Amino acid sequence: AGVAISSALMEQVPPQLMGRVQNTFYFAATGLQIALALLVGATAHRLGLRYGFLIIGGVYAAAFLSAAWPAATPARATSSTLEVGTG
Hints:
Blueprint: H1 2-12, H2 18-46, H3 49-68, H4 79-82
Helix pairs in contact: 2-3
């Protein structure tokens, strides 16, 4: 899922914002990983290891579904839209 999101970002984000957007997603993903680790650890400790693995499996299933979901085909640029300031 991370590769699909990164590839989609490279197509949609203007080049001058690319580094900022990638860093924002990197920090957000790191925060989500920390939160998930704490959630899995607390769940496995209190309820059992089985439930910790169930959470991890659910995250992998959600990542698979989001990566397999068909995306809309982006509109292709035509030669008339590529002409810039000819006046």
